[in-house]
Structures are given as structure tokens and as C-alpha cells.
Amino acid sequence: MSALDVTFVTSDRTEWSGKAARVVVPAADGSMGILPRMQPTLAVLDRGIVRITSDSGEVTEREVRGGFVSVDADVVTIAVDHADRPASR
Amino acid sequence: MGAQQRQYKQRIGSAQGMKKIFKAKEMVAASRISKAHARVQATTPYAEAITQAIGAVATHSGELDHPFLETDRQQTGRAGILLITADRGMTGSYSHNVIRAAEELGNRLREEGKTPVLYVVGRKGETYFRFRNREPERAWAPYSENELASLGHEVSEQLTADLLSEDAERHLDELYLVGTRFLSRFQQVARATRLVPIEVVDGEENAGGIGAPSYPLYEFTPDAETVMDELMPRYIESRIVNLLMQSMASEHAATQRAMKTATDNAETQIRKFTRLANSARQAEITQEISEIVGGADALSGSGRTER
Q1: Strands B115-121, B78-84: parallel, antiparallel or unpaired by DSSP?
Q2: Per-residue confidence band for B230, with pLDDT thresholds at 50, 70 and 90
Q3: Residue A39 sits at the chain B interface (C-beta within 8 Å)
Q4: Residue B202 pLDDT exceeds 60
Q5: Which of B51, B119, B246, B278 makes a 20 to 30 Å CA pair with B151?
Q6: Does one domain contain both B18 and B106?
Q7: CA separation for the pair B173, B161 (Å, rounded)
Q8: Is the ipTM of this complex over 0.90?
Q9: Does residue A89 lie in a domain region?
Q10: Between chains, do B219 and A28 touch, taking CB under 8 Å as contact?
Q11: Does B64 touch chain A (CB under 8 A)?
């Protein structure tokens, strides 16, 4: 199975980039999961948690506020206004 | 020691002191350039992502219109100019160059029958216009180098609000950015560019051609209009933040160059005054000798043999 090529950027830095197996983003109308071979999508993001599961199964979580995500032929670009490490639970 | 010599020594001393200060400022600026440049580059992926997304939306929904995309938004004839200048002095011609570019743009707009409205960042630009009794519409000064991102956010919020405003007193038809592009350590250009109305260059540049970037048919969530509404202010903000950071890097580069020149000048001064001090000392010695010789001559001429 192919992997997602993810670039996760905020306005002033690159938060995460690399290959991922799946990505979950907080879209404006509900949480959206992204898997390889998804149809091209451009979605507006709300506040919530972006969860990236990398190829090796490592999970990266970031609390984000506002932004957008574009999916195009397994290239995922997440651009957000703010990203913070989520408060440890 | 003669008075003249003492004066030269004093001036050499002060030139040496200044040279040290200039040298220090030069080195500080040099180290800040790379930091500022790294910051510019850190914003690039975000800016690229937004530009690409806007291109995708624009090419796929031909009927889509957004107030920032309309080419004809003549309402009040007010054209906003965002001018980015320095807060500090000692930057050589950095601030003058951007101010001149803004003035040229302003004159051109006036010739076209529009009213330029100034938004100024930086104390140098603010005082320039305030001194000439042309108060800028809004000025952000002084600003801190570490808060460029939040400054950019504030600036773009105000500008976006004014662009969309229905109030004839506030509404802007167009928006221009005047700042300094950081091309390299040695080359920076002050330039004015139009930001609104936006020309979607991406995709239209070689439309129909084989090399045209083909965007896939996107699914928009929730819908294309909402996506566009969300993207546009971000695009404006990212452009403004990017230009602010480029200008900051350019300011440091200009400072470095100006301080380099100042250091060189101080060196020239030191050399010049050292020469003058040497010749003054020589003149003094010569005079003393001739005084002694003259005195001895006068003594021997008087015929007295013992003292």
C-alpha cells in the first residue's frame, strides 16, 4: 500500500513532514480521516487535534486552530494558523 | 605638547572609539541577517501551500468570485499603500529607498485619479510623513523584531477589514505593498507590488499550454466559497508577514553595509589625523631646533664667551 506524503506547516515553521499511513484532521464539518488513495480534497479546518500516524506507527498529535488541508494524489498539505502540543492527559 | 597636536590626538581618540562602535554594530547586524533570513525561509512552505490552494480553487470554479479577486472594485477611489520601513536609524539608504518607492507609487496613483491612503510600519516612515503633515492612516511603530508574525497578523486584519468595509470613509479599492525584498546578503530591492485585486497567476500563466499545472478536481469541504473565504485573508496575511520578514532581513543587511562604510571612514579619519599629528609634531620640533640654534647664534654673535 502506498503511503501519504505529509507536510504539516504553520505560518512560521514546518511542524512535521514525512511519510504517514494515516492522518486525522478536524475539518470544519467534522473530523476527517485521510488514508492513501483518497480523492483530491481541499478542506477548511476548525479547532481540534491533528493526528498523524507515521509509517512506523508513531503518532504525532498537535492541537490546531484554523487552517486548511489539501489532499492530492497522496500528497497531504496541512497548513494551520497555530499548532501546539496537546495538553498531556 | 603643542595645542595643535593635542587636538589631533583627541580627534584620533574619538575616531577610534567610534570605529569600535561601528565595528560592533556591523558584526551584530551580520549575525542577525542569517537569523532573519532563516525566518523568511521558514514561512515559505506555508506561503506556497496557500498559493497552491488558491490556484486550485480559482482554476476549478470559474464562476467563483471573491471580493479580492474582482478586477474592478472601484468604489471610493481609495488605494491603500502598506509601507514597511525601519524603526532604527543607521541603516544607510534602506528607509529612504522604500519611502521613495512609496512616493512614486503615490504619485502614479494620484495621476490615475485615485487617493493613496498610507499604512506605515516603522518609526522612520511614520516620522517622515508626520513631519510633512501627511499623517498616515495608521502607523505601527515601534515594533519588535521577535513579534513580526503577530504584527503581520494585526496589520493584515486591519487591511482586510478596510478592504471589505462598506463604509466609504474606510473602504479601500486596492492594496499595494511597498517593502524591501531580500534577494541575497548583498542585494536587496525596494519594490512596490499590488496585492489586491489579486491576479491568479498560477495556472493562468500558460493556460491551455501543455506545461500548465493541472490541478485535480478537488472536493471542497464544506464548499468552494467557504474555502475561498477562509483562504483569502490567510493569503493576504502570509504575504504581509513574508514581506515584513524580508524587509527585516534587508534592514540588517543595509545596517551591515552602512556600518562597514562607517568603519572604513573612521579608519580613513584616523589615518588622516595621524598624518596631521605627525607633521604638527615635526613642525614643533623643527621650530624648537631653530629657536635653539637662533638663540645660540644670538649668544655667539653678542661676543660674550662665558655664560
Answers
A1: parallel
A2: confident
A3: yes
A4: no
A5: B51
A6: no
A7: 12
A8: no
A9: no
A10: no
A11: no
Question: At which residue does the C-alpha cell 472601484 appear?
Answer: B74
B25 touches chain A (CB under 8 A): no
Residue B65, CB half-sphere, CA atoms under 13 Å: how many? Answer: 7
**β-pair partners for B121:** B84, B140
Taking only residues 107 to 166 of chain B, the set having a beta carbon closer than 8 angstroms to any beta carbon of chain A reads 149
> Does A42 touch chain B if contact means CB atoms closer than 8 Å?
yes
The pair phi, psi for residue B215, each rounded to 5°, is -90, 135
Answer whether A10's CB lies under 8 Å from A78's CB: no
Across A70-88, average pLDDT: 84
- Residue found under cell 480534497: A41
- What is the domain range of residue A8? 4-84
CB–CB contact B57 A81 (8 Å): no
* β-sheet bridge partners, residue A9: A14, A79
How many domains does chain B contain in total? Answer: 2
Residue B189 has pLDDT above 80, yes or no: yes
pLDDT tens-digit readout, B63-108: 566 778 776 677 788 899 999 999 988 898 999 999 999 999 999 9
CATH code at B191? 3.40.1380.10
Q: CB distance from A53 to chain B under 8 Å?
A: no
Integer angstrom CA distances of residue B292 from B167, B281, B286, B296, B299: 91, 17, 10, 6, 10
For the record, the C-alpha cell of B271 comes out as 589615518
- Is the CB of B66 inside 8 Å of chain A's CB atoms? no
pLDDT digits (tens, 9 = 90+) for A29-52: 889 999 998 888 889 998 899 999
**pTM over the 0.90 mark:** no
State the smallest CA–CA distance between residue B72 and chain A in angstroms. 28
CB contact under 8 A, B215 and A79: no
Domain membership of residue B109 (yes or no) is: yes
CA–CA min distance B81, chain A (Å):
23
In this predicted structure, what is the pLDDT of residue B70? 72
Is residue B176 classed as helix, strand or coil in its secondary structure?
strand
C-alpha distance from B221 to closest chain A C-alpha (Å): 4
